[in-house]
Amino acid sequence: MSSTGFAYSNLVGKSVPPPAPRWAGNADFNFVGGHNDRSLIPVEGLIEATASVLRREGAELALYSLAQGPQGYRGLRQFVADKLGRWRGIQAGADDVLITSGSGQAIDLINQVLLEPGDTVILEEFTYGGYLTKLRRLGVDIVAAPLDEDGIRIDALGTILADLKGRGITPKYICAIPTIQNPTGSIMPLDRRHQLLALAREYGVPIFEDECYADLTWGAMDAPPALYALDPSRVIHIGSFSKTLAPALRLGYVVADWEFMSRMVAIKTANDSGTGALEQMVVAEYFSKHFEDHVNELSATLKDKLDTMVEAVEREFGTAVEPWLPKGGIFLWMKLPDEVDVRKLVQPALKAGIAFNPGPEWAVDGAAAKSRLRLCFGLTTKEEIRQGVAAFARVCHDETGIPVQSGNVRHVAAESGE
Amino acid sequence: MSSTGFAYSNLVGKSVPPPAPRWAGNADFNFVGGHNDRSLIPVEGLIEATASVLRREGAELALYSLAQGPQGYRGLRQFVADKLGRWRGIQAGADDVLITSGSGQAIDLINQVLLEPGDTVILEEFTYGGYLTKLRRLGVDIVAAPLDEDGIRIDALGTILADLKGRGITPKYICAIPTIQNPTGSIMPLDRRHQLLALAREYGVPIFEDECYADLTWGAMDAPPALYALDPSRVIHIGSFSKTLAPALRLGYVVADWEFMSRMVAIKTANDSGTGALEQMVVAEYFSKHFEDHVNELSATLKDKLDTMVEAVEREFGTAVEPWLPKGGIFLWMKLPDEVDVRKLVQPALKAGIAFNPGPEWAVDGAAAKSRLRLCFGLTTKEEIRQGVAAFARVCHDETGIPVQSGNVRHVAAESGE
Description:
homodimer; alpha/beta; Aspartate Aminotransferase, domain 1; Aspartate Aminotransferase, domain 2; 2 domains; globular
């Protein structure tokens, strides 16, 4: 229904973001965000799980939060606790778990408990873009901890903490994605985990550990124990079902000491009336029986698609590209030559039907990451990956002259008619 | 896991609410909140709907928001538009509907678009307690519009608007629940709806219309058209599936002019990554076929339970009680004699296994509503209603001496051993 005269805009608050555009759909070659593989949504398994759990407990949907309180459906909390015990070395029970409406709500709750404008937090130099946008809206100072192929560099972090202490600043948290880092896909080795925790103890800083991708490793869940497992008193641990099952379901979780979690629960209770119970029930029922099989099949498929993407990127971009080879997950993080500013490729790529995440949105220092980008290989088929990466290389060449050669075709020669 | 030493409390922000207690479960006689009837959760219908919609569209769960954008699952938006057209006189299409994570999120989004600290809004004198707590946290001035058995009194509202105008204040909205008011259960007649809209036009104020209970009327959905139907340009209309289906599902909706909705969509996109898609898909699939039958059966059951509760209240409280007889919904709003302060009954009632909503939490002027209370008859069985109301009358008598007589038992006589 079109606007018929009343001017709401006179009444809108001063800090309200600009109007959203009408939804225009996704790009054909959709390498953006964290979508998953359509063929691996376990449709029949979810139908069976729904029938089973609703016949057993469906009448309880008549009560807010199934009358199980603000921490969420007990069956899902128990599954999370069991999963974390079996694969992540975490000793926790259902009462130590808070189910959230996606890991995004978990992040918001942690920030709402701890942060006030002017506070300082430490993030990995490349990290989930959602952290950056949320923290910037909160008016928080973000300090970048440098990364290498094993995660946060402990020497650099020590220098940062000492420097902050010298200025009288205790950061509110160190946010780390130690197991399948986003976007780099690295896994922090055990000895470095201990070093990180030692630094956190020395400086009195909690660690905010994000394991949203940790269940999707190429090596059958063989990462070292979670940071939370090594020091439950000072680590706030979050995870998600968006990547292991489906992002259109909005389910994440937190494991934390009750002193901290009780603050999160108080805020969640004031903000919502619970997380959707049907999704919690169905995921608990399905994953209580099928988690390991599903995640193993998914990881194998993702590894195959990663290999396809790495081949395509190397074929199309040649020596112009430096990919970080991930140890799991759904992303390929890569660097183009310094003279390429990927921000200038976003619109031309979209016109060619290609969506990607520019590095500056995934970096504390955006300008310094202007030649980096992230490609998701979760959604697209292998053929779409090959076609899409080739099309992206053409866009990149048309805009920047790079790459000079794709496969065995020299672009410059093709343009001159040879 | 118990606390093992790290003191998060040193790091917690200054305005964070106190820690939540561990969940203690619901009361035996649970007349609080907006729970529904367990026996009317359509378990087999939901299972069938899940199988049908997942076999058709389940693979799309692999994409955030099913790749259908931030307004929600198109099938549910279309159902909402059709329902509102058929029963509420509203002409809207799927693009005019925003699905939210419960009506609570809709309320938050409306407030986030319009309100800044120090703003003024007009609410009904008795209203949904969630409005009051949310608005007080936002630092907004709330002006109460008096109610009678037909909803907002237009003469009084006119005086309020003129008075505010005289002080240079334009309220950001008039929030009304014209169709099954919460807590009174009234339905505003058509002529008064026109008068309300005329006042809103005269003073340049939008109307925030809440129809969360409007589908549950005793008279087969025979209420006058929604306010939105009468003036779509200045009414923001919200509804919910919590009462028509199940509150543990978190699904609400908004219909509003795109100028306004585009602001809500922008904020929702910044705050979440969509509303849970499985619940949207299942509700759309189930209600597209079964809405009328389900709501008719539910309303008949609720009317029967209301009659049981009114009988019980009159039997147990006699002339001490003045109930407002609702025209639909799940609540009985009533007043005890002025000397009873229901706030002092909350804890003794809980000890006796009875939970109720004290009037002050449902009133702009809490102290003035100290003798009022709200009982939900949605959850409890008829036998529990009879037992619970009798138990509540005993608690009330023990604490206040009122009621003097329950049924044909004079409490004072019983106590003196006669």
